[in-house]
Amino acid sequence: MENRIQAILTLDMEKIPANFQEILVHEKQVVEELKQAGFLEHLFLRQSKNGAILIFKDIDEEKAKELMEKLPLYQLNKSVEYLNLIQQF
Q1: Residue of 23, 58, 62, 19 lying closest to 39 (CA atoms)
Q2: Which pTM value belongs to this model?
Q3: CA-CA-CA-CA torsion for 13, 49, 25, 54, nearest 10 degrees?
Q4: CATH of 3-86, one of 3.30.710.10, 3.30.70.1060, 2.30.110.10, 3.40.640.10
Q5: Which of 43, 38, 42 is nearest to 58 (CA)?
Q6: Contact predicate 89/4, CB 8 Å
Q7: If residue 63 lies in a helix (H) or strand (E), which one and from where to where?
Q8: b/e for 55-75, b at 16 or more Cβ within 10 A?
Q9: Tens digits of per-residue pLDDT, 9-38?
């Protein structure tokens, strides 16, 4: 069984800067790096368009927090919740 960390990122939509599109480009680059490194298993955009859910694999919560802080959109967070998961199937 492999462990997973689910990070639920909620953005503060009132703090969205004018250069938001540029931030998104950089965000995609960092996400791709995390994916290629094998840390990030899934990324889901929330239908409410105010955040995302990221699933990290084979790392602990402390490492997940460290990786989340590297995301450009993390600076716009309203809240971040971390859940430790154990995959059953």
Answers
A1: 58
A2: 0.92
A3: 110
A4: 3.30.70.1060
A5: 38
A6: no
A7: helix 61-68
A8: bbbebeeeebbebbeebbbbe
A9: 999 999 899 999 999 999 999 999 999 999
Dig out the tokens for 87 from the structure.
Answer: 């995959």
Q: Kindly indicate the confidence band of residue 1, based on its pLDDT and cuts at 50, 70 and 90.
A: low
Strand partners, 52: 9, 45
The domain limits of the chain are 3-86
Which strand (E) or helix (H) includes residue 38? none
Tokens of 28: 């995609």
Average pLDDT over residues 55-82: 96
Higher-confidence residue of 25 and 2: namely 25
Which among 59, 8, 5 is positioned nearest to 37, based on CA atoms?
59
Cα 24–chain centre separation: 13
